[in-house]
Amino acid sequence: MQTRRETLKQSAVVAGLLASAGFPQFAQAAFNKAAFDAKSVQDAAKAFGAASMAESKDVTITGPDIAENGAVVPLGASTSLPGVKQLLILVEKNPAALVAMFHVSDAVEANFATRAKMGQSSDVYAVAIMADGKALFAKKEVKVTLGGCGG
């Protein structure tokens, strides 16, 4: 029977082997630094390959009209359009506009929900990046009564 100390030692050895084999490079392969550093909605969409943005009724954004606590604002994005590569949730007045990015394929129903931190009232966007580079969006204004960024 193994002791707790031996189990921890073996776990550390396995973690070291994974790190030396290059596992972290695969974990960061999907990270798009330009998109997460983008300060505007347009810049974040461009970082994912969107040529131009157009409003569409086929993309929907869900969220509360008034968020009582900006630290945990429930947001959702969905579309039934075929040929969607990515679905983004963006908050216009956040320090970093990109809140979430979801990879979509024909085998996945493009209907996602998450929670975001919002420091102030802002427009929230759901952007569907299509395979041909078009970006279709829907927006909704969410008013925040108690700021989530220390307010």
UniProtKB/TrEMBL annotation:
Pfam families noted in UniProt: SoxY (PF13501)
Q: Which InterPro entries match?
A: SoxY (IPR032711), SoxY_sf (IPR038162), Sulphur_oxidation_SoxY (IPR016568), TAT_signal (IPR006311)
Domain Ig-like SoxY residue range list: 46-149
Swiss-Prot/TrEMBL keywords: Signal
Q: Which domain of life is it from?
A: Bacteria
Q: Where is the signal peptide?
A: 1-29
The name on file for this protein is Thiosulfate oxidation carrier protein SoxY
User: Which species is listed as the source?
Assistant: Limnohabitans lacus
Supply the gene name. Answer: soxY
